[in-house]
């Protein structure tokens, strides 16, 4: 859970941010001096200051962010909106799926419709007969009583072949023509009880067409790796999406938990499911495209009080696969944004900045870490010191999140690991990005499963309570 506005926790986090900015100003002067001494007249010194200025600007914008609160004049409006939750499922573990369903039905503001779409998940042996059967159907068939008691229409669809997450989500979108808000949700996402209630508040403003929620790690204490991933994951929200939200231009609402105004995205559904790149049908990158559609006709904001929890990769192999998939989606998605978003929108400038930053770092990193040290015969320790200290500056925003399941001491322990998280980011956020840009269509498919006879099967499903 996050601290409410005006709480002591939030006041302390703002104070820490101010100290961080003051600290960063002195640090920038130190690094500039070192570069001037060791690399006289180098343009790298200007690049360093530009990086610092951009980091400071992001932190300042993040500091200005405020969640949307309930408008008394429209107090009932969010409650009247028809909310559809699209839940595509493929090879998910039963306990996790049960917890996800339970967290949906435990919401203070329930959806009108929950559509579970099996993207041709593999059939499993029945525990009694041993014959192949649809385990997801069995699970969802057990949830009807509680869903009906809460007034939630629960629908189940099994696709005859694996078509990717886009087609799975579009199946749910097309099946409910009266839905006003679409929620995209992963089956391993566990929701805070007020998530839907808070996420709908920004839609009181008609210009808002997309809302990004806050995702936190379920397993942040599992290992050193998950702690490091958690730091970067939280920073992507508390610095990245928060600063973009001030400009009404969040670039990606995570597909694991995102909200969209249906009327703004319906005209793009055909393109959404048929988009191709290099003659190949795109199956992933659904969250970036949906956010881009939303930005073409409105604004995308971040609501930190809408919280969900998801598990992070626990091995380096799994982390590498995840981030390669993300970066491949970014590689073509960011170019699509630059080509199609209006130049008059802040979102276009943010997308263009990311492209320029990519090419700038492509030139800066090899020169700063390899070429100049070899030519000058010195170890680039100023760069290492700079990255170490700047990692602490950026991570001040990590301290702004207060979780009921995380003590302040545990949070400070993670904060102290910020330099290691920065080092991990050089791998998952730099090296993997280059590889993804060179292979944008690799990994565009899941494991193939044969089509099943009988076509698409849809049926009302049920619910049985399972505590989160």
Describe the structure.
The chain is of the alpha/beta class and 468 residues long. Helices cover 52% and strands 14% of the residues. The strands form 3 sheets. It has a 9-stranded mixed sheet with strand order 7-12-8-9-6-1-2-5-13, with helices on both faces. The chain has a two-stranded antiparallel ribbon with strand order 3-4. Helix 2 crosses helix 9 and helix 15 crosses helix 17 (418-438). The longest helix is centred in the N-terminal third of the chain and has 31 residues, at 8-38. The relative contact order is 0.16.
Radius of gyration: 23 Å
Strand order of the largest sheet: 7-12-8-9-6-1-2-5-13
How far apart are the termini? 15 Å
Secondary-structure-based class equals: alpha/beta
Strand content: 5-15%
Number of helices: 17
List its salient traits.
single chain; 17 helices; 9-stranded mixed sheet; alpha/beta; disordered C terminus; two-stranded antiparallel ribbon
Q: What's the helix and strand layout?
A:
Layout: H1 8-38, H2 43-64, H3 77-80, E1 83-89, H4 94-105, E2 113-118, E3 124-125, E4 132-133, H5 135-141, H6 144-149, E5 153-158, H7 165-175, E6 181-185, E7 189-191, H8 195-199, E8 208-217, H9 224-246, E9 257-261, H10 262-265, H11 269-274, E10 276-277, E11 280-281, H12 286-297, E12 299-310, H13 316-340, H14 346-376, H15 381-394, H16 408-416, H17 418-438, E13 457-460
Parallel strand pairs: 1-2, 1-6, 2-5, 8-12
Antiparallel strand pairs: 3-4, 5-13, 6-9, 7-12, 8-9, 10-11
Helix pairs in contact: 1-2, 1-15, 2-9, 9-17, 12-13, 13-14, 13-17, 15-17
């Amino acid at each position: 859970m996050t601290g409410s506005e005006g709480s002591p926790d939030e006041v302390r986090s703002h104070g820490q941010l101010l100290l961080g900015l003051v600290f960063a100003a002195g640090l920038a002067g130190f690094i500039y001096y070192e570069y001037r001494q060791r690399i006289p007249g180098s343009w790298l010194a200007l690049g360093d200051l530009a990086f610092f200025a951009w980091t400071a600007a992001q932190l300042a914008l993040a500091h200005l962010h405020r969640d949307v609160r309930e408008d008394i004049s429209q107090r009932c409006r969010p409650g009247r909106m028809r909310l559809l939750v699209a839940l595509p499922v493929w090879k998910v573990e039963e306990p996790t799926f049960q917890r996800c369903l339970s967290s949906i039905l435990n919401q203070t503001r329930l959806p009108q419709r929950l559509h579970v779409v099996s993207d041709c998940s593999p059939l499993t042996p029945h525990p009694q007969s041993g014959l192949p059967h649809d385990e997801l159907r069995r699970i969802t068939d057990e949830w009807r009583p509680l869903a009906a008691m809460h007034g939630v229409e629960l629908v189940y669809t099994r696709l005859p072949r694996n078509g990717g997450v886009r087609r799975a989500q579009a199946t749910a979108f097309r099946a409910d023509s009266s839905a006003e808000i679409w929620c995209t949700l992963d089956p391993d996402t566990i929701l805070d009880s007020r998530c839907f209630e808070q996420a709908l508040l920004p839609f009181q403003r008609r210009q808002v067409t997309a809302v990004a929620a806050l995702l936190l790690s379920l397993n942040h204490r599992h290992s050193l790796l998950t702690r490091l991933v958690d730091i970067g994951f939280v920073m992507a929200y508390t610095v990245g999406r928060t600063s973009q939200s001030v400009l009404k231009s969040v670039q990606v609402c995570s597909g694991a938990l995102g909200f969209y105004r249906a009327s703004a995205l319906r005209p793009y559904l055909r393109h959404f499911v048929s988009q191709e790149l290099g003659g190949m049908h795109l199956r992933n990158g659904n969250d970036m495209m949906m956010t881009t559609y939303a930005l073409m006709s409105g604004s995308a904001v971040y609501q930190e009080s809408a919280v969900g929890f998801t598990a992070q990769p626990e091995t380096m192999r799994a982390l590498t696969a995840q981030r390669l998939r993300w970066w491949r989606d970014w590689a073509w998605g960011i170019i699509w944004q630059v080509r199609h978003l209006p130049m008059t929108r802040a979102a276009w400038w943010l997308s263009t900045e990311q492209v320029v930053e990519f090419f700038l770092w492509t030139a800066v990193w090899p020169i700063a870490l390899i070429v100049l040290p070899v030519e000058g015969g010195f170890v680039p320790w100023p760069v290492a010191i700079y990255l170490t200290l700047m990692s602490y500056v950026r991570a001040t925003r990590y301290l702004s999140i207060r979780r009921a399941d995380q003590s302040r001491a545990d949070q400070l322990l993670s904060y102290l690991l910020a330099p290691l998280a920065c080092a991990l980011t050089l791998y998952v956020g730099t090296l993997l990005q280059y590889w993804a840009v060179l292979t944008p269509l690799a990994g565009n498919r899941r494991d193939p499963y044969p089509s099943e006879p009988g076509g698409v099967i849809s049926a009302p499903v049920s619910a049985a309570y399972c505590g989160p």
